[in-house]
Design a protein that fits this description.
Two copies of one chain form a homodimer. By secondary structure, the first copy, chain A, is an alpha/beta fold. Helices cover 37% and strands 13% of the residues of chain A. In chain A, the strands form three sheets. Chain A has a seven-stranded mixed beta sheet, sandwiched between helices. A three-stranded antiparallel beta sheet of chain A has the order 9-12-11, with helices on one face. In chain A, helix 3 crosses helix 7 and helix 5 packs parallel to helix 6. Chains A and B meet through helix 3, helix 4, helix 7 and helix 8 of A and helix 3, helix 4, helix 7 and helix 8 of B.
Amino acid sequence: MPQKISSPSFFIGKGDDSLISFGSGQPDLPPPKGAYSILKHYKAFKYGLIQGEENLRSSLAREYPNAKPEHFVITNGASEALDLVLRVLSRPGGRILLPRPYYYSYPHNVLYAGMRPAYYDLDKNGKIDFEIFKKAVQGCRAVIINSPSNPTGTVQEIATLKKIERLCGTLGVYVISDEVYKDLIYVRKNYLIQGEKVVTVNSFSKTYAMCGFRVGYLYSKNIEVIEKVIEMKTHTSMNTSIVGQAMALEAMKSPRSYIAHHVKIWEERRDMIYGGMHDLGLELWKPEGAFYVLPKLKNPNRVVNDLYYKYKMIAYDGTWFGAPDRVRFSYALDISKIKEGLRRLKTFFGGEYKKY
Amino acid sequence: MPQKISSPSFFIGKGDDSLISFGSGQPDLPPPKGAYSILKHYKAFKYGLIQGEENLRSSLAREYPNAKPEHFVITNGASEALDLVLRVLSRPGGRILLPRPYYYSYPHNVLYAGMRPAYYDLDKNGKIDFEIFKKAVQGCRAVIINSPSNPTGTVQEIATLKKIERLCGTLGVYVISDEVYKDLIYVRKNYLIQGEKVVTVNSFSKTYAMCGFRVGYLYSKNIEVIEKVIEMKTHTSMNTSIVGQAMALEAMKSPRSYIAHHVKIWEERRDMIYGGMHDLGLELWKPEGAFYVLPKLKNPNRVVNDLYYKYKMIAYDGTWFGAPDRVRFSYALDISKIKEGLRRLKTFFGGEYKKY
């Protein structure tokens, strides 16, 4: 009897060629060539600044309005940025408001930081209902906003985000804005959430396909938070990999066409998987950003197990993301594989799934 | 009026040529050439295993007795290893026993993990007095052992370490053994602390001069701890930089002569600075490992300020390491600079210091 699948980590390292993975959320397209160009003659080895290399922070500052290098801390991916900011904001009994469905690490990060997650549900369109948010946010220490969202693929309305900025500003609630998919939006430009108590979490992983190098950052005009993060990082990991930072700097020098070209590819894949699932009769949101679909399905854990053991397909149980009636499919893979995956799904829905 | 120096971070980024830095503890000699050889054709970019690359863990397993790849987790330097293990061992009100003088991050790491540091003093030779240790360890959740020690430069007696192994085993107290200087010992081979509740923290930073790449690891036969660390790292930073790990693997392939050659250089420098300071009449321990001397000095903060502002020398206030009557000098620098530093110190002791 096969092992029952209980978390995304089950799939780590499982990747033979006949397997089609709609699992892990990482670009399959390579980073800009420039990122590798610096490696040939790379010779540095000493500690870097805990805050991150000055040249990389200067380059980032040019991408944000009225930003300065001192507003950034370079981190081991967005994960460490999130971990550090939650830890420095930690208060005994503090509650952190999360949208549901949520990125599956959020509740863990909140608990690891010694606080408690609180939740509100996105509406039937995968959007924030401001009235519901308004009630839920009262008394919270901070709120995590994730637009575009992993796993929903939705992008929040600018009007809503502005209302959240104002409300949290008035209440003195910190906004941690996870914008790691800011460059992968199909419907509009990214809206940067701003404010005195706003901390933006971002990464080079998705924009420049550099997941494995673990270079992310946080950005805030709140110097007190920045300084506390640097102080903590001094003791918990020191500088982020100097070679990873050098690669990230070179990646940022690539022409905007690198990103535009990728978005076009993502959009084709999005159309393929969304159209295909829609034709199979599934109820799902049309992705506006990122690279995930989250169709409604009965008994998602059984679906995930059947797909893996009977159809050699990896998909993630929505339960892991706070969506116990859905399954997440990442479409970060070649269009031919998406097609084959849809074919297998059709067989599955015509067969096993009918008996659920 | 110059800014008063209050922590090691004051010196970060301060490094003009006339300045002699006995500050930061990092090798000035370069990593093995092999570490860079893989960069030329490096093309990977995807997420790696959270636990660390299998080939690197296999290579490490060959260096430890009866070890297997699954006993290791590759981390963002020893700092992250320490942070993660303290966080997974965290209990409300838990006390972590630290030697004094201690590595300056330890108390911070303990507090960040939601526990409290407890201290015992090393004896007048910079060694652990087992009877004192025995009393202090009662009721503690874990103890951190650091041999060779930063900042004392001392290596603990094997007989004492064996007694600590036995006592902690009996008491059920975890031993976190920070052995990052294990390959830089002048007096004997390293003694690996072992046991069911032992977690060894180590790094490629000192042995292979790879500080900036931030590749460290923890090693334990306690699979429960290993699994909890992996689970936490999944959410707090994911895999350690894949390119850093590839470089570390190549570094491990260098001949043992790389390390032996370096130890010889360190020993010459040790003799130079220890002899020089001894001749200046300072009271200090002769380093048995690592690359620090910690002479007794009145008013260490004033010493550090005077040396920096009047003599263009960086040294660290012992207070930052729990030694308020000492100053730490790292001798990770060229012998000509050590000589010049000793010359400046002689002038300082003949001048300003007399008026303290």
